Amino acid sequence: MIKKYLIERCSWLILFIGLQLLTIFIALIDPSITVRPVLYIVFLSTVILVVFVIVRYQKETAFYKQLRDSDYDLTDINKGTSPFEKIVEERLDGQTKQYKNELSQHNIKLEQEKDELLSWIHEVKTPLTAMQLMIERVEDKKVKEQLKYEWLRMYLLLDQQLHQKRIPFMENDLYIEQTNLEPLIFQEIKALQSWCMRKGIGFDVSLEIEEVLTDAKWLAFIIRQLLTNAIKYTESADISITSYREQQHTTLAIKDHGRGIDAKDLPRIFDRGFTSTTAHQDTASSGMGLYLVKNALKPLHIKISVQSNVGEGSTFTLTFPNKSEFVAITGM
């Protein structure tokens, strides 16, 4: 800050130095003026200037130091004392109020759009349910299976969109309890049954640990996304779902035998919109499923890890916090 202050006052300092040099020059060319007293006066003037600059530096930069160190919140900044500081303060205060007002209006608009979208999704689910009942009455098995598959695709897309809008506020919707894994997993498998039959995929479910401490609804969404991801890239192979105890934590692993993930892609698979570098032309992937999984896991304090080899498949592992850790983290 002192460097910037000296640059700001550079013209004043140059003027002072010029006046002192002019005084010395006059003393040198005028025989009637003794040089020694003039040099003494110049020295005293310089000392006084240095003291003056130090004092003024502390006073004049206090306001701007606060501006520099502030987090765009002017409420904690002391009022300006000089006329120019007051001009800056008034302008900043006016702009801050204007931006806050615009931000508030923008947030209200976003909330309205979110509520309208959620309402639309719920409304669309009604004709989807009716379509499902109509599909069940179709006699042609081939057509029926095709309709079931397309219906499931629509349902999963709507479900993903619904949860994407809810995730930023999911902490308001959590209900942590002991959740039975078996009915939850089989419910999700049943929902994806038509897709699995179409691709010749089976499931091997082995649950050593049957209960976990979590929110059942959001865990179901997470498992749904992981199963959807596994089914999408697997052909005519089983998907294994296992739970076990490891290092005093319950672990749930979902293993597929699909195309696998390249090692260079693993650090990026949870990034929004990332699909793949090895199969970049694949339009089946939206790059949103694993991104939503990562964001849904945070409020639940569940850790996720991935192991994968290209051509061999992938294993997604969820590690649940135990009760004591959950209480320590959340205070619940």
Keywords:
59% helix; elongated; 10 helices; Heat Shock Protein 90; alpha+beta; ATP binding; two-stranded antiparallel ribbon; membrane; 332 residues; transmembrane helix; single chain; 2 domains
Give the helices and strands, then pairings:
Layout: H1 2-8, H2 10-29, H3 35-69, H4 83-136, H5 141-166, E1 177-180, H6 181-191, H7 193-199, E2 202-207, E3 211-214, H8 216-232, E4 238-246, E5 249-255, H9 289-300, E6 303-309, E7 313-319, H10 323-330
Parallel strand pairs: 2-4
Antiparallel strand pairs: 1-3, 4-5, 5-7, 6-7
Catalytic activity: ATP + protein L-histidine = ADP + protein N-phospho-L-histidine
GO molecular function, one term: phosphorelay sensor kinase activity
EC number: 2.7.13.3
